[in-house]
Backbone:
């Protein structure tokens, strides 16, 4: 098979070929490593490439499969991990100079589970420093760029994972999501990413950003691949005190059920307001497609929805500042300017600001749970705009008005983060400049299965996810 | 600066003392404008959450599990 064809394989397409020994894990891993070599100078998607380890594991995998030891649909699949996820023996920088030499002596639970399933880790991806920001404009490891247009940003903080998956420089990746850090890069890179319910996937041995909102999850090209990775990493972990003992539904079994009868909610005066035109058009088009497949769409009021950005900024300011308190005093010059300023400001909120923000989360969650009596999921755009130029700190959404990037980027993704709900981002079109648009689907607590079901039905009826950047 | 966000150079200086965070004057000055915006928004949320109708709302400390799973 030609290298371009190999790289275009999804996990679901590669897995049966690997199992039947029509495709060698050595050949597939080598193709991915060559692709990384070809694109990483442009994209800066990887901080560390684990080529020797990946080649060694691929050879062992080939011997295992030849001997009849096939572990399942991730066996022999080259994947990437965001660089705040501990990997034993491989440095884990969290995109920070402060952790430039940190080599963990154990894996994160999610890394260990993926390895046990036979996945081959090809590298650690670039990210916004300590995950505190949404651009992946990293002052220590280089600016990460968007494969659809390298002059544009890949969003963040999991920008390297998003760019690598979109550029075919791995078949799937893990990101982390506190206020949108999986969904934002999934949206602007034209791929699929899910933020799980808090407690669904272990955070053990993942460098934290904000403890009460942090999550880990997959980023892939298709919903089906996302399910494959998600089912391996999800589930109770006694090493994570926030891990939930809630049974995981058979997400794969639900994929073929379609969306007939599914009730989709639009939050009144919120879901489709304050958007770039191309984003609104793409999301409305996706809703029409879903209606055509038998879903119903209705408006739902949510009186407390506004206030979410302030609550998110407050919590995301205060919690990281507590984690970084010692380093901020002993190594302030080792932070990039933007993260240093955010951490300094995080020390200047009052306790009442933080507590009121946490109370707001309860209120918002209560309104969502009430709304879920009326509908099965809620839909918003993932971002109100498409990829901005690298280095931009402001963005224009409408009426030629510039807005602060950090607040604008949180417009939609902060809501499920605050309410502790799962949310899926999937590609639903492109703007006139050929930049991807993503749609966010928010589900009930621990009901990731319904999000996958909707996403898979949509991808079966459309082909946005099959487009690839010309890089 | 918004009138409900009285963040000045002096405010930042005092907050730094309270937080035991010694910052040089040039750094403190840089924080005044962005902190004003953040505190103004946080104060607005404070007012909303302090209303009598919301007195019964508890802060999130840990998300519930089994009863909603």
Residues:
């Amino acid at each position: 098979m030609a290298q371009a064809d190999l790289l275009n394989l999804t996990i679901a397409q590669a897995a049966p070929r690997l199992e039947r020994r029509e495709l060698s894990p050595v050949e597939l891993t080598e193709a991915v490593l060559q692709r990384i070599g070809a694109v990483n100078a442009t994209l800066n998607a990887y901080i560390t490439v684990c080529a020797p380890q990946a080649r060694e594991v691929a050879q062992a995998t080939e011997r295992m499969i030849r001997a009849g030891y096939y572990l399942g649909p991730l066996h022999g699949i080259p994947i990437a991990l965001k660089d705040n996820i501990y990997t034993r023996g491989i440095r884990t920088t969290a995109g920070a100079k402060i952790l430039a030499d940190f080599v963990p002596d154990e894996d994160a639970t999610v890394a260990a589970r993926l390895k046990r399933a036979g996945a081959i880790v090809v590298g650690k991806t670039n990210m916004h420093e300590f995950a505190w920001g949404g651009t992946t404009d990293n002052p220590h490891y280089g600016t990460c760029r968007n494969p659809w247009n390298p002059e544009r940003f890949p969003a963040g903080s999991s920008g390297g994972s998003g760019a690598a998956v979109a550029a075919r420089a791995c078949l799937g990746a893990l990101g982390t999501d506190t206020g949108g850090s999986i969904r934002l890069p999934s949206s602007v890179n034209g791929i699929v990413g899910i933020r799980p319910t808090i407690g669904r996937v272990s955070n053990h041995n993942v460098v934290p950003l904000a403890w009460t909102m942090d999550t880990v999850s997959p980023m892939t090209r298709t919903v089906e691949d996302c399910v494959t990775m998600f089912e391996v990493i999800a589930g109770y972990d006694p090493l994570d005190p926030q891990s939930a003992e809630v049974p995981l539904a058979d997400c794969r079994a639900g994929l073929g059920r379609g969306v007939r009868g599914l009730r989709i909610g639009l939050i009144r005066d919120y879901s489709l307001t304050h958007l770039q035109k191309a984003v609104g058009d793409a999301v409305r088009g996706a809703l029409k497609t879903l209606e055509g497949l038998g879903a119903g769409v209705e408006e739902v009021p949510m009186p407390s929805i506004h206030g979410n950005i302030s609550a998110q900024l407050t919590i995301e300011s205060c919690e990281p500042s507590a984690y970084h308190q010692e380093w901020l005093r002993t190594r302030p010059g080792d932070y990039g300017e933007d993260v240093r300023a955010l951490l300094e400001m995080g020390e200047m909120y009052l306790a009442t600001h933080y507590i009121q923000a946490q109370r707001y989360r309860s209120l918002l969650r209560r309104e969502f749970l009430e709304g879920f009596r009326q509908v099965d999921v809620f839909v918003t755009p993932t971002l109100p705009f498409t990829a901005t130029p690298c280095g931009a700190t402001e963005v224009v959404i409408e009426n030629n008005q510039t807005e602060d990037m950090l607040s604008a980027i949180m417009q939609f993704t902060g809501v499920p983060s605050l309410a502790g709900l799962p949310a899926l981002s999937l590609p639903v079109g492109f703007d006139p400049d050929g930049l991807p648009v993503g749609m966010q689907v928010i589900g009930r607590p621990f009901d990731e299965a319904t999000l996958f079901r909707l996403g898979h039905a949509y991808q079966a009826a459309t082909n946005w996810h099959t487009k690839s950047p010309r890089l | 600066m918004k009138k409900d966000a009285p963040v000045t150079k002096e405010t930042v200086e005092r907050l730094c003392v309270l937080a035991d965070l010694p910052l040089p004057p040039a750094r403190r000055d840089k924080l005044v404008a962005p902190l004003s915006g953040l505190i103004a928004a946080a104060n607005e949320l404070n007012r909303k959450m302090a209303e009598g109708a919301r007195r019964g709302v508890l802060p999130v400390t840990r998300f519930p599990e089994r009863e909603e799973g």
Notes: The first helix of chain B runs from residue 9 to 18.
